[in-house]
Write a structure and sequence with these properties.
The structure holds two protein chains of two kinds. By secondary structure, chain A is mostly beta strands. Chain A contains two helices and 23 strands. In chain A, the strands form two sheets. In chain A, strands 1, 2, 3, 4, 5, 6, 7, 8, 9, 10, 11, 12 and 13 form a 13-stranded antiparallel β-sheet that branches. In chain A, strands 14, 15, 16, 17, 18, 19, 20, 21, 22 and 23 form a ten-stranded antiparallel β-sheet that branches. Classes of the chains: A mainly beta, B alpha+beta. At the A-B interface, α1, α2 and β4 of A face α1, α2, α3, α4 and α5 of B.
């Protein structure tokens, strides 16, 4: 039967064609595999740890102002950290955080024809706690320190990241104006000189671990009278209050065993301030290099070591966003100075949903200092509680 | 029961002539395959381009773009420092050629990782396993996808050598990306990601940006925001929507793609004739069986469906085979289409086929539609069968012969319609193609009548050398008119197509050769290698052009800067010419006095436009065009229209002084050197090469070499046309083979009678060969005038309307002779098998069939 031959022939040809068509349209690529992601923030976090070629903080050095308000490009990391508590005349409270980080991605500046070529990059965090309104706003941005997009200088003082900036309004670094805006918020504040700079640690050298060089230069302006305007969701508020500025630069990383830190900057109603950071070990205990400073209303600041401070967590809060549990209330005591404080977040949710999540927010305090009842406001920073890798401090 | 009976009858019939059935399947399959493969190649190329555009444009809603030199980078800083700046990202983009691997053209995309994440998700910054430090700070650091790296033969950490306008640059692969899905992997296949600093340095665009991507809200808020940003734009910069770029390319290549599609349809037309022939044959052959079926009570409607059903089965099988074959051929054609696009229009790299349901659907519709349409007439014939066994072939042939004059009349009408359509004063292509196909159909309808007349006339001349056999052969053509006419028409259409397309290409080539002759008058041409062969926007490194112009032995020289400028919003190649001291003006004008035109061109707002430009933009001498210059939009007067066959989208020409007045771009893309009297050109080329040094790889060509190269590119761009022509010939060949074979096989009984009455096998053989040869000759003769007519239409109507070129129709005798040989050889080959079979068959057995 010749018909069968035809059918078989046609079938064979069709199968052959189908195979050929499948061959030429095949997907030649291997199956996808997912690699761990690395973010911009990680790169800024100095995860690679190689400190070679950078300047390091080995010993105390004399800090000079206004020069040291400006950048120290030889160090890998540096930041300008402003926090503050503000209120309107009719008592609506706000907290703010504006941070500008400088990070060097390489130890050497290469000769480049392009103005975009640089090793310096800037990261900024802006957060506004609308305590009266019960809302928290936060945003993050990055830019390279080139082309005028971001940068810093000592005289006249200016640090900026695109349209976020801190700059001197007069001849000296202070008073300075902070300007920043983000989605649904903005702030424009003038910070006046208050107390003189407080050198943290050993004359400004803040040791973060046992190895030499694993330290930063660290000073703070602990009380800066502040006034200006904040805008939240389209409404502007005239505000006054107190700000705190932290300045730190280093080429160090968190030690192997450390997972994060809890940092407190507290301004007490009796005119004194307390800074304390507790470095947390993997097992949950406090590292020996945890340290702080008590700045009395009058007189010299007092260095505090881990042994001087007792910190107790009284409550926790779980972020509905990340599922991370953070401490949410503390009892902080410095028995040697007769200080006991109860510290509560002014708002439970002050978690920054940025590339590396952390909690940083306005806090309220009450307690006793040298037998007298005190109240106060401050800022607390809690890092290393989520799964994400943490930034050094 | 009845259905089973009918189906069995059909199957037995199709099965009893397996070779014929197979040939008609092949015919349908080839016809469908050609259409599908061209469509596939076209869509794949366009999709690849869209993908690459989308990849680099990302999710931008708007873009700031500058003039030829891009935007100053300060625009970006000003934008970012603006209070409440919009979401934006800077881009420096260009093309480089890989030195290693498959040497593909790569898109170098320079980005700022910190600004990228709202736009392009694959860029590091939002993840990807990348050492951002090295990416940002190391000069020359690039990132590729793993697939691209494999194609280029590099690994992470390896150096990557690329050529940028002839200058070699060394990059380093710092990381490989693994895109999350196939789509983005494909989109990034020829992409090299780098920091914007590296891109500026590698592409020689320090201080400039290619564009700024913006993301603005939809609707009025976005428009208002845009208005507020406009003051930031320097003069000459504009806001565009990224989609516009894709549209521009679509426009630019439309004529090219339409013409390919039309050529592929020609193959299907020939295929349709073939199906018609097969179905007619099957009906004619079964006339007795059909008569019997009618006698046992099968209705006309059932017979009609029977034949249509058979056609549908053939159509389905043939179409499926055609689709598969089309995919296979598309794989090859896509390379050709891509190469042509790259030679003519743009940089696109197509690394795979894009199978779209629409393409396949078109193939199915065309295949089945053509088959059923072709089967309609035979089915109707079948349904007309009288319920008797006495319907003889001769009756049918009588009908055919009677019908021939009427068909011829109809043919004349259709021809007239075609001519009418062609002479419609419209720039649209569709009526032109309608006219073209009408002319083909009309000519085909004339065939039966002409055949009857001519074959009758051939009987005498053939009788003289071949005697009785010769006369019988000639009469056989007439007496089997129902089949011979169809076979002839198919062969004629096919051969005419090859003649038409062949003549069109030769005419085109002749015109281009003449044009090259007149426009290439310098002795040595120097230019940096360019990625789009025919466009050449690559520029010399600074000072090199002047250095070369000062080569000893050069009497005078001219320079050319080719650059893309938006003219009336459409990116257009603009040439800025500096004639230096040369009196030579290698341009010919379509109209007007050349001397006066050159004089007028010296005005600071005067330009010349090429013929296709004048055609596409509907602008002539005295009109004006708006150019987006670096000083803002400016209107220019068109003072002349010049012939140019280098670009089908059109170019614009201005004097270099005029160009420099409006553009901040001192670069030069080409230098033409005129040798001093007595200077040996080859020696001059060598000297220029020596002077050029190694800083930049340059194409240094003598006049002759450049002309040869230009023609080579021309031939390359017509390769696909040739391929299509060959495919149409292939389909026609199969058609003729099957038609003539069917004819001769069908005459088995008649030939058996002849054998029984004493015809020797040798005589039988010459009878069959003479007859098919006569058919071939007739087809060839019919095809020649039709082919020339077709060429006329292609050259003066289709080309004119597609590209706006004035071409001279050259009737090359080579092409005509080839066509005759083709027709004759197809016919001769077709006669071989049947005559071999007949001469071997036992006449008694053949006679007993009834």
């Amino acid at each position: 039967m010749r018909g069968r031959g035809l059918v078989i022939g046609v079938a064979v040809v069709l199968v052959g064609l189908a195979a050929g068509a499948a061959y030429v349209t095949r997907d030649a690529s291997p199956p996808w595999e997912h690699e761990p992601a690395l973010t911009v923030a990680d790169a800024l976090g100095g995860k690679d740890g190689g400190a070679e070629g950078y300047t390091r903080a080995f010993e105390p050095r004399e800090l000079h102002f206004p020069e040291d308000h400006g950048p120290h490009p030889g160090f890998r990391t540096e930041w300008w950290y402003w926090t503050g508590n503000l209120s309107t005349a009719d008592g609506r409270d706000f907290g703010y955080q504006l941070t500008l980080f400088r990070s060097a991605l390489a130890s050497e500046e290469k000769e480049r024809a392009s103005a975009w070529g640089t090793r310096q990059v800037y990261m900024g965090h802006l957060a506004l706690s609308d305590i009266g309104g019960g809302r928290f706003h936060a945003t993050e941005r990055f830019s390279r320190g080139a082309l005028g997009l971001a940068g810093s200088r000592a005289e006249p003082f200016r640090v900026w990241l695109e349209d976020w900036s801190a700059e001197a309004t007069g001849d000296g670094a202070l008073p300075m104006r902070l300007t920043a805006r983000g989605e649904g918020m903005s702030l424009s504040l003038v910070l006046e000189a208050g107390k003189p700079p407080v050198l943290q640690g050993d004359r400004g050298l803040s040791q973060k671990g046992p190895e030499p060089g694993n330290a930063s230069y660290y000073y703070s302006l602990t009380r800066m009278p502040t006034r200006g305007q904040v805008t939240v969701e389209g409404r502007a508020y005239e505000v006054t209050g107190q700000s705190w500025m932290d300045r730190e630069w280093s080429t160090s990383a968190l030690g192997e065993d450390l997972v994060g830190w809890d940092w407190f900057s507290l301004q007490l109603s009796d005119g004194s301030e307390l800074m304390y950071y507790q470095l947390r070990r993997r097992d949950g205990t406090a590292d020996t290099f945890s340290a702080g400073t008590l700045v009395p209303a009058l007189g010299e600041p007092v260095r505090l070591s881990r042994e001087d401070v007792r910190l107790e967590v009284l409550a926790t809060w779980k972020s509905p966003r990340s599922g991370t549990t953070y401490p949410a209330r503390w009892r902080l005591a410095v028995p040697s100075r007769g200080l006991t404080l109860d510290i509560r977040p002014a708002l439970a949710d002050q978690e920054l949903p940025v590339s590396v999540r952390y909690w940083e927010g306005s806090a309220r305090l009450s307690g006793t200092h040298a037998g007298q009842p005190v109240r106060g406001r401050g800022y607390v920073e809690l890092t290393g509680y989520g799964d994400a890798p943490q930034r050094e401090r | 029961m009845r259905q089973r009976l009918l189906a069995r009858a059909s199957l037995r019939h199709l099965g009893s002539h397996p070779w014929l059935t197979a040939l008609s399947l092949l015919g349908i399959a080839l016809g469908v395959a050609v259409v599908v493969s061209i469509d596939l190649a076209n869509t794949s190329a366009m999709r690849a381009f869209e993908r690459s555009t989308d990849t680099v444009a990302g999710r931008a809603t708007h873009q700031f773009v500058g003039g030829p030199a891009g935007l100053p980078e300060s625009v970006y800083r000003d934008l970012r420092l603006l209070p409440g700046a919009p979401v934006s990202a800077p881009v420096v983009e260009g093309h480089v050629r890989a030195k290693g691997g498959d040497q593909r053209t790569l898109t170098l995309l320079g980005v700022d990782p910190f600004a990228e994440s709202p736009f392009r998700s694959y860029v590091p910054g939002s993840g990807g396993g990348v050492d951002l430090g090295a990416f940002l700070t190391e000069p020359g650091a690039v990132i590729l996808t793993q697939r691209t790296a494999r194609a280029l033969g590099v690994k992470a950490g390896d150096p990557l050598e690329v050529g940028v306008e002839g200058v070699e640059k060394r990059l380093r692969v710092v990381a490989l990306l693994q895109p999350g899905d196939e789509g983005s992997a494909r989109a990034m296949e020829s992409l090299v990601l780098t920091d914007i600093s590296t891109a500026q340095e590698v592409l020689g665009q320090v201080g400039r940006l290619s564009r700024i991507d913006l993301k603005l809200p939809d609707g009025e808020a976005g428009e208002a925001r845009l208005e507020s940003l406009r003051p930031l734009l320097p003069e000459g910069a504009e806001v565009v929507r990224p989609r516009a770029r894709g549209n521009a390319v679509e426009q630019m290549t439309r004529a090219f793609r339409t013409n390919l599609t039309a050529l592929s349809l020609l193959a299907l037309v020939v295929g349709t004739f073939l199906i018609y022939n097969t179905m007619t044959f099957s009906v004619v052959q079964r006339r007795e069986q059909l008569g019997r079926l009618r006698a046992v009570g099968i209705t006309r409607r059932e017979l009609f469906s029977l034949v249509l059903g058979e056609a549908a089965v053939l159509g389905v099988v043939g179409t499926v085979a055609g689709l598969l074959l089309g995919v296979l051929m598309g794989r090859g054609l896509v390379e050709l289409v891509t190469r042509t696009l790259n030679d003519l229009y743009l940089v696109v790299s197509v690394r795979g086929l894009t199978l779209e349901p629409f393409t396949l659907m078109k193939g199915v519709l065309l295949g089945l539609g053509a088959t059923l349409a072709a089967a309609l007439l035979p089915a109707w014939e079948a349904a007309r069968s009288a319920p008797a066994v006495t319907l003889r072939r001769s009756t049918l042939e009588d009908v055919s012969r009677h019908r021939a004059p009427r068909l011829a009349l109809l043919g004349l009408l259709v021809l007239a319609l075609g001519v009418g359509l062609l002479s419609l004063p419209t720039p649209e292509l569709l009526p032109a193609y309608g006219g073209l196909f009408s002319v083909l159909l009309g000519a085909a309808l004339l065939v039966p009548w002409l055949t009857a007349k001519l074959a009758g006339m051939a009987a005498g001349p053939l009788g003289r050398p071949f005697g009785l056999v010769g006369r019988m052969a000639a009469r056989g053509v007439t007496s089997n008119l129902s089949r011979t006419a169809v076979a002839l028409a198919a062969l004629m259409v096919a051969v005419a197509t090859t003649v038409g397309v062949g003549l069109m290409v030769t005419s085109f080539r002749g015109t281009v050769a003449d044009w090259l002759e007149s426009s290439l008058q310098a002795d040595v041409y120097v230019s940096p290698p360019s990625l789009v062969t025919r466009r050449g926007g690559a520029t010399f490194v600074p000072e090199l052009a002047e250095h070369l112009r000062a080569t000893p032995g050069v009497a005078s020289s001219s320079t050319l800067r080719t650059v893309q400028v938006r003219v009336e919003g459409v990116p257009t190649d603009v040439r800025a010419v500096d004639f230096g001291g040369t009196p030579v003006r290698p341009y010919r004008f379509k109209e007007g006095d050349p001397e006066r035109t050159w004089k007028e061109l010296e005005a600071p707002d005067a330009v010349l436009v090429s013929e296709p430009f004048a055609f596409h933009r509907r602008v002539g001498v005295g009109g004006t065009v708006e150019l987006a210059t670096d000083k803002g939009p400016r209107r220019f007067r068109v003072v002349g229209v010049y012939f140019d066959y280098g670009s089908d989208t059109g170019t614009l020409l201005m004097l270099r002084d005029t160009y420099l007045r409006h553009f901040d771009d001192p670069r030069v893309s080409g230098v033409a050197l005129y040798a001093a009297p007595g200077q040996d050109v080859d020696a001059l080329v060598a000297r220029v090469r020596e002077r050029a040094g190694n800083a930049q790889a340059l194409d240094i060509r003598s006049n002759r070499a450049l002309r040869e190269m230009s023609l080579e590119v021309f031939d390359r761009t017509f390769t696909i046309t040739h391929v299509l022509r060959l495919l149409a010939v292939g389909v026609a060949f199969i058609g003729v083979l099957s038609a003539l074979m069917a004819l001769q096989l069908e005459r088995a009984r008649e030939l058996a009678v002849l054998r029984a009455t004493g015809l020797t096998p040798r005589q039988l053989w010459s009878l069959v060969s003479l007859q098919t040869g006569l058919l071939g000759l007739l087809a060839g003769l019919f095809a020649l005038p039709l082919g020339v007519g077709l060429a006329y239409v292609l050259v003066h109507v289709i080309n004119q309307r597609s590209f706006g070129w004035t071409l001279r129709l050259l009737v090359s005798t080579d092409v005509l002779l080839q066509a005759l040989v083709l027709a004759l050889s197809a016919a001769a080959l077709a006669g071989l098998y049947p005559s071999w079979k007949m001469s071997r068959a036992n006449p008694a057995l053949a006679l007993r069939e009834e």
